[in-house]
Amino acid sequence: MLIGAMNHPACDPLREIQWMAEMGLDFVDLTIEPPAAAWWQVNPKAIRDVLQRHKLPVVGHTAYYLPIGSPFRSLRKATCEELKKCIEIFAFLGTKWMNIHPDREQHLHDREDIIGHNLETFSELLPVARDAGIGLMVENVPVHFNSVEQLSELLDPLPDLGLHLDIGHCNLRGSESGNSYEEIVAVYGSRLKHVHLHDNKGGTADLHLPLGTGNLDLFGCIRALKEAGYDETITLEVFSKDHHYLQYSRDVLRKVWDETVVRVRDGQHAHAGV
Questions:
Q1: pLDDT tens, 41-51?
Q2: pLDDT digits 0-9 by tens, 198-243
C-alpha cells in the first residue's frame, strides 16, 4: 500500500512535490487545475524531472467542478478538450490512472438526462486516454453518486471505466445505507483503482479532517479494502496548512493497515486492530 497526498492547486506544483518528497510520501496525487496548476501554467518537463529525482509516481486528478454533464453540448465539448489536455500531460508524466468527477444535479433536468450527458463525455474520453496509455476512473461524490445504485449508472455501461473510491465522501449523507464504502467495495472492488481517505463527522460537511478526528470507521474501511484485495495507492486528503496533521494521519494509516488482519474462513471475517 502506497500513501500519498495532493498538491494544492493554488500553489506552485514543484514546491508542493518537494515537501511531499521531504515528508517521505510514496506518490503524488497531482491535480491539474487553476489557479496555479492548470495545464497552461505548469511545466510538464520540470514536474517530470522533480518526480523522477525523488522517484515518486503520480496519480492523475482533475477539477471536480468541470461541467462534463452540462445540458449545453458546447460546454461538454469544451470540457472534453480541457480533460484531453490533462490526459496529454499525465501521459507525459507516466501516469497510469486519471480521475474524473461526475457532473451532478442540473436545474430542471431529469437524472436520466444527467446520466446520459456524463456517459457521453466519458465515452469520448475513454479511447483518447486508452491511446495515451492511461486509464480513466470515476470518483464517487456526495449525494448524487455515492452508492452502488447511483454509481452503477456510470460503471455498468462502461466496463473500461475504473473506480476511484473517496471513503470520506462515503461517510457523508447521500447513501440510503449510511456509510456506503462497504457495499461499494463489495460490488465494485475488482474495479477499484485508487482511494482517497480523510475524516469527517457525517452529515453534509466535507471537512477533510485528519484521521481520528471525526467519526469515520477507519478499521472497517481498511478491513473492507483488504478483503477486496486492494493494496495500491491511498491519498490522504487532509486539508490543512499545517502538514503535521497529514504526517500524523500517514502514521495512523500505516499503523492501522499493518495491524489489521483479515481472515476468511467459512464465510466468517476476523479483524484484529490496534
A1: 999 999 999 99
A2: 999 999 999 999 999 999 999 999 999 999 999 999 999 999 999 9
Q: Which domain holds residue 104?
A: 2-272
Please report where in the chains the cell 479511447 appears, as a residue. Answer: 127
> Residue 210 belongs to a domain with what CATH number?
3.20.20.150
- DSSP letter string, 43-73: -HHHHHHHHHHHT--EEEEE-TT--TT-S-H
Record the cell numbers describing residue 18, joined without a space. Answer: 518537494
Preceding omega of 35 cis (within 30 degrees of 0): yes
Q: What is the dihedral of CA 180, 183, 189, 195, to 10 degrees?
A: 10
Torsion angle (degrees, nearest 10) of CA 253, 254, 260, 263:
120
Q: How far is CA 97 from the centre of its chain?
A: 10
Nine cell digits for residue 53: 529525482
Total domains in the chain come to 1
Measuring CA to CA, which residue among 190, 208, 191 is closest to residue 199? 208
The pLDDT confidence band at residue 264, using thresholds 50, 70 and 90, is very low
Rounded to whole angstroms, how far apart are CA atoms 249 and 218?
11
Q: Per residue in 159-205, pLDDT tens?
A: 999 999 999 999 997 545 567 899 999 999 999 999 999 999 999 99
What does the alpha-carbon distance between residue 55 and residue 50 come to, in Å, rounded to a whole number?
8
